[in-house]
Design a protein that fits this description.
This protein is α+β, with helices and mostly antiparallel strands. The protein has a domain at about 15-145: Gcn5-related N-acetyltransferase (GNAT) (Aminopeptidase, 3-Layer(aba) Sandwich). It is about 35% helix and about 30% strand. It contains seven helices and eight strands. It has helices at about 5, 35-40, 45-50, 60-75, 120-135, 150-160, 185-195; strands at about 20, 25, 75-85, 90-100, 105-110, 140-145, 160-175, 175-185. It has an eight-stranded mixed β-sheet with strand order 1-2-3-4-5-6-8-7, sandwiched between helices. Strand 7 (about 160-175) and strand 8 form a beta hairpin. Helix 2 packs across helix 4. The radius of gyration is 18 Å and the shape is globular. It binds coenzyme A. Coenzyme A (COA) binds near residues 45, 48, 49, 111 and 150. Coenzyme A binds next to helix 3, strand 5, helix 5 and helix 6.
């Protein structure tokens, strides 16, 4: 008789896992929803990131996570949970919003406030851009951030991104219109920088 445990299928996500020195960038699972709501729901995250809702309502994380696999398979995005390699603790999120026709992607990320300033975001960015240029064969990655968010700018500059320009009073946060800085990294410059 076949053991029932051997008959159970192990479901493997098509979304890749990327490892760096201290981090494992892995697919989100539905069980992460509560922690995502807790971390991303901190106003410090919505204040820096352009598109994160505040308040971060129940159910938002579940539907966001549920969309990742199809969006990846359709070539639209690669969204990964940032977790600590040694403990498995989920500390943030990083993603590429891909335009296949133009072989470019917009990069976005957030790190839970308790984990800021440890170099985690810079390390996560270095992992995902390596994958983007080597495996997804992208030609360009760009990122936009609110001008007052200089930590985000630092993360990009440390990874070789350069400023392309800025958009004046482009987004509204609370009652203020804020400037956006636009940074990018080209494939050619990424590989030249590595050699
Ligand atoms: C931006 C963010 C992702 C950075 O994450 P992090 O893990 O703390 O980043 P790192 O530790 O890798 O690097 C941050 C760098 O910014 C620097 N920094 C932090 N606050 C700064 C400030 N107010 N001004 C200038 N530099 C600052 C740090 O010193 C560090 O640089 P260093 O390594 O040369 O010392 C995190 O603050 C965050 O999630 N913010 C809210 C969401 C957000 O802004 N997302 C980005 C939207 S574009």
């Amino acid at each position: 008789m076949v053991n029932k445990y051997f008959k159970r299928k192990i479901r493997v996500s098509p979304i890749p896992v990327i490892e760096t020195a201290k981090l494992r960038l892995r697919p989100f699972i539905l069980k992460d929803s509560h922690r995502v709501q807790l971390l991303a729901g901190d106003e410090a995250i919505a204040s820096g990131a352009i598109n994160i809702p505040h308040p971060y309502l129940s159910g938002v994380a579940e539907s966001w996570i549920s969309s990742h696999e199809n969006e990846f398979l359709n070539g639209n995005s690669l969204i990964l949970a940032i977790s600590l390699k040694d403990t498995g603790l989920l500390i943030g999120s990083i993603g590429l919003y891909i335009n296949s026709k133009h072989q470019h992607a917009e990069l976005g990320y957030w790190i839970g406030k308790d984990y800021w300033g440890e170099g985690y975001c810079s390390e996560a960015v270095s992992g995902i851009i390596k994958y983007a240029f080597e495996k997804l064969l992208l030609n360009k990655i760009f990122a936009n951030f609110i001008s007052r968010n200089q930590a985000s700018g630092k993360v990009l500059i440390k990874n070789g991104f350069v400023k392309e320009g800025y958009l004046k009073k482009h987004v509204k946060y609370k009652n203020d219109f804020e400037d956006i800085e636009c940074y990018s990294l080209l494939k050619i410059d990424y590989f030249q920088r590595r050699n």
